[in-house]
Design goal:
Layout lengths: L3 E4 L14 E4 L13 E6 L5 H11 L5 E4 L19 E3 L6 H16 L2 H10 L14 E5 L3 H10 L5 E6 L11 E3 L3 H4 L5 E4 L13 H5 L6 E4 L8 H9 L4 E4 L19 E3 L10 H18 L6 E2 L3
Parallel strand pairs: 1-2, 1-3, 3-4, 4-5, 6-7, 6-9, 7-8, 9-10, 10-11, 11-12
Antiparallel strand pairs: 5-13
Length: about 300
C-alpha cells in the first residue's frame, strides 16, 4: 500500500511529485483528508488552524514516519515532541526562506537607519520634521547567526560598505570567506557596533541572549534588528532603551507574539515592527513546494532527508 502523505498543496498542482505516494491536500485545519491514523508523511505550516491543529494531528498520527515542517525553526514544537511515534523523524524547512528573510532584515535595517519610522509618524500627523539619517557606509554591523539567513544577510550588506562582523555559536577561521567570531566574544564586539542583526535560532543557549545588560552595552543610537526569534531579546528591556531614545529597534519577531495592541513598543517613533512576515513573499509557495518535492523524492528513494532535527 502506498504511504499516505499530507501536503499543503493540491497534488495536481505539483506534477513533479514522485510516484508511489498517496498524496492529499491538507489546509492545516481540523478537516482531515484521510484518517490521521493512516498518515506517514505529514507536512505542517501555520494555516487556518495554526500550530495547535498540527499538534493535535500529530497526536493522532500513530503511523507517522516523517513530520515535515516548512518553517525554519521548530522551537514551537519542542514541548510536543513526545507525541511523535518512536523512530519518527522531524525535518524543518531551514534554508528555504533564507533569501526572503534576509531581504526583510536588510530592509528593516535600512529603514531604521534612514529614520523611516519617525518620518512615517510625521506624515500621519502632518509634521514636517527633518532629521539626520544614518548611512551604513563604514558602520560596524554585527550579524549574529551564521546559518543560511545570516550568510544571506552578510552577502546583501556587502555593497553598502559596512564593516561586517559575523558571529556564530563557535568561531570559524577565515579563508575564502571572512572569519566568524564565537558568541562568547559578543561582550567585546557589541560596544563598537552601530547595528546588530539577529538571525540566530532559538535554543537554550540563545534564549534571552540580548537582555538588559547586553542591550546596555550597545552605543547610543545603535540599531537592533531581529529576524530570528522574539525570545532572543528581553522585550521589556528593549522597550525601555527605545523609549529613552537610546536605541532603535526594527523587529519582525517579538516576545510575546503577537505583541499586544496596548504594548508601549508599538508607540515608539524609533521602533519598526513587522508581524513575523520574513518568509511570506510571492516566492514562498514556489520555493517551499519545490523543497517539499525534493524531500518527498528522497523519502521515496530511501535517501537521507534534508534538515535533520534530533528528537528526544
Amino acid at each position: 500500500m502506498r504511504p499516505v502523505v499530507w501536503i499543503p498543496y493540491e497534488p495536481k498542482d505539483l506534477p513533479a511529485l514522485p510516484d508511489g505516494l498517496d498524496c492529499h491536500y491538507w489546509d492545516g485545519t481540523d478537516t482531515c483528508p484521510t484518517p490521521p491514523e493512516e498518515v506517514r508523511f505529514l507536512t505542517g505550516f501555520p494555516g487556518a488552524g495554526g500550530y495547535e491543529t498540527l499538534v493535535a494531528m500529530v497526536s493522532r498520527a500513530r503511523c507517522l514516519e516523517v513530520l515535515q515542517v516548512l518553517s525554519s525553526g521548530h522551537d514551537y514544537l519542542a514541548p510536543h515532541l513526545g507525541l511523535l511515534p518512536p523512530d519518527a523523524l522531524l525535518r524543518t524547512g531551514r534554508g528555504v526562506h533564507a533569501e526572503a528573510t534576509a531581504e526583510l532584515a536588510v530592509t528593516l535595517l535600512l529603514a531604521s537607519a534612514g529614520r523611516i519610522p519617525r518620518f512615517v509618524h510625521g506624515q500621519r500627523t502632518g509634521a514636517w520634521a527633518p532629521a539626520g539619517r544614518l548611512t551604513l557606509r563604514g558602520k560596524r554591523v554585527v550579524v549574529v547567526g551564521a546559518g543560511a539567513v545570516g550568510t544571506a544577510v552578510a552577502r546583501l550588506l556587502e555593497p553598502f560598505g559596512c564593516d561586517l562582523v559575523r558571529v556564530a555559536r563557535s568561531a570559524r577561521p577565515g579563508g575564502d570567506a571572512p572569519a566568524v567570531h564565537a558568541a562568547r566574544e559578543l561582550p567585546s564586539l557589541l560596544p563598537a557596533a552601530d547595528a546588530v542583526v539577529l538571525c540566530a535560532p532559538l535554543t537554550e543557549e540563545t534564549r534571552g541572549m540580548f537582555g538588559a545588560h547586553r542591550l546596555a552595552s550597545l552605543k547610543d543610537g545603535a540599531i537592533l534588528v531581529n529576524v530570528g526569534r522574539g525570545e532572543l531579546v528581553d522585550t521589556d528591556a528593549l522597550t525601555r532603551e527605545v523609549s529613552f531614545g537610546r536605541l532603535r529597534a526594527a523587529l519582525d519577531v517579538v516576545a510575546p507574539e503577537p505583541l499586544p495592541g496596548a504594548h508601549p513598543l508599538w508607540r515608539q517613533p524609533e521602533a519598526l515592527i513587522t508581524p513575523h512576515v520574513g518568509a511570506f513573499t510571492d516566492a514562498f509557495a514556489e520555493d517551499s513546494a519545490a523543497f517539499l518535492v525534493r524531500q518527498l523524492r528522497r523519502y521515496v528513494d530511501g535517501a537521507p532527508l534534508l534538515n535533520a532535527v534530533a528528537v528526544g
